[in-house]
């Protein structure tokens, strides 16, 4: 039955991580401490976002440009700095890799004792801030494997199945943190009055099939014919509804909780699609599989992709098993004809 509300109020993030791992080995303690650091970063960013538009420095541009070639809004730079400073103090993370940094950043104080690498997108969908719509942070934790001399971070390019933990923070009407350490997917809601993330859903499971498809149909003419076949199909068949917020974390969160499929396909101009593998699609693919769903590039599982560089992009089809398979069937159909 439902735990008494007090118990639920006291299931904080760090306690939850320890509970899951049962064993209190070094990994359990480390992952619990790391999730606590993520929570601290999330609280700092959430607080800043709640003032966006009021406080100088949250909106507007720094004039710099990130790996996307997008002009960096101040909040992206601020959020990137938050993760760096929070994890400097952790003593656990030796290296940070972010969309906002061309090369990974080694935390000198923590190396070489640091056992982990954090990969993250500090603020995803920052263009949504100006219209006060949701944005998110995405993170992935991997083992620190040696010190790469030339900073090419070859060890980070291994498949997403090497991830120890992954998740995201959704800065929406409430701030939610959703994570997995390989033992199911769990969500926490920030209680600002407590300053704590309190457990809200455990062992979230994606339904095998859902009615939502989430894709930017404005790119329709950029896609391969197979994706257009899929869109024509869902237009013609009852029971589908389109939802697209234009920010990955919010669009994925909707699929995780309601079922269906999110797609960001490749296009003629960008065959690899727009979204980054190591700190966007691989962490979400980790969650999707942990929640009983799937994440595909259209031809292979996202979690099997081995990157050839840090900021590599992949096409992504992610969500309920049956919905992902339906999209793939159109891709396979066209491939047979070629
Ligand atoms: P489009 C936001 O800029 C972002 O990186 C993701 O958060 C989002 O899923 C995607 O790009 C939206 O791209 O081309 O649909 O505007």
UniProtKB/TrEMBL annotation:
One Pfam match: FBPase
Cofactor(s), names only, from the UniProt record: Mg(2+)
Enzyme kind, highest EC tier: hydrolase
GO annotation, biological process: fructose 1,6-bisphosphate metabolic process; fructose 6-phosphate metabolic process; fructose metabolic process; gluconeogenesis; reductive pentose-phosphate cycle; sucrose biosynthetic process
EC number(s) reported in the record: 3.1.3.11
Domain Fructose-1-6-bisphosphatase class I N-terminal as annotated: residue spans: 12-201
Positions that bind Mg(2+) 1: 99, 121, 123
Domain called Fructose-1-6-bisphosphatase class 1 C-terminal: residue spans: 207-331
Co-factor binding comment: Binds 2 magnesium ions per subunit.
Subcellular location: Cytoplasm
MF (Gene Ontology): fructose 1,6-bisphosphate 1-phosphatase activity; magnesium ion binding
Domain of life: Bacteria
Record pathway: Carbohydrate biosynthesis; Calvin cycle
Keyword Metal-binding on entry: yes
Residues the record lists as binding substrate: 124-127, 216, 244, 274
This protein's GO CC annotations: cytosol
Description of how the protein assembles with itself and partners: Homotetramer.
Name this protein carries in UniProt: Fructose-1,6-bisphosphatase class 1
Organism of origin: Oxynema aestuarii AP17
């Amino acid at each position: 039955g439902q735990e008494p509300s007090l118990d639920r109020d006291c299931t904080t993030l760090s306690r939850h991580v320890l509970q899951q791992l049962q064993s209190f080995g070094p990994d359990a303690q480390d992952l619990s401490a790391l999730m606590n650091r993520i929570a601290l970063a999330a609280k700092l960013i959430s607080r800043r976002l709640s003032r966006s538009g009021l406080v100088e420095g949250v909106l507007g541009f720094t004039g710099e440009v990130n790996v996307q070639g997008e002009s960096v809004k101040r909040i992206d730079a601020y959020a990137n700095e938050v993760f760096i400073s929070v994890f400097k103090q952790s003593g656990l993370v030796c290296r940070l890799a972010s969309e906002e940094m061309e090369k990974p950043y080694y935390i000198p104080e923590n190396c070489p004792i640091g056992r982990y690498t954090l990969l993250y997108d500090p603020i995803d969908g920052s263009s949504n801030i100006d219209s006060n719509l949701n944005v998110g942070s995405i993170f992935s934790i991997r083992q620190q494997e040696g010190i790469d001399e030339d900073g090419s971070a070859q060890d980070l390019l291994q498949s997403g199945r090497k991830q120890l933990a992954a998740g995201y923070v959704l800065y929406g009407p409430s701030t939610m943190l959703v994570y997995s350490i390989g033992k199911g997917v769990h969500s926490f809601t920030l209680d600002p009055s407590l300053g704590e993330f309190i457990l809200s859903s455990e062992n979230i499971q994606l339904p095998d099939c859902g009615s939502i498809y989430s894709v930017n149909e404005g790119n329709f003419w950029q896609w391969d014919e197979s994706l257009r076949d899929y869109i024509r199909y869902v237009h013609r068949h009852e029971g589908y509804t389109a939802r697209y917020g234009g920010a990955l974390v919010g669009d994925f969160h909707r699929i995780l909780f309601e079922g269906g499929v999110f797609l960001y396909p490749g296009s003629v101009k960008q065959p690899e699609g727009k979204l980054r593998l190591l700190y966007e699609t691989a962490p979400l693919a980790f969650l999707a599989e942990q929640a009983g769903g799937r994440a595909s590039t259209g031809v292979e599982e996202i979690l099997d992709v081995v990157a050839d560089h840090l900021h590599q992009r992949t096409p992504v089809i992610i969500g309920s098993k049956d919905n992902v398979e339906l999209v793939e069937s159109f891709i396979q159909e066209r491939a047979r004809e070629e």
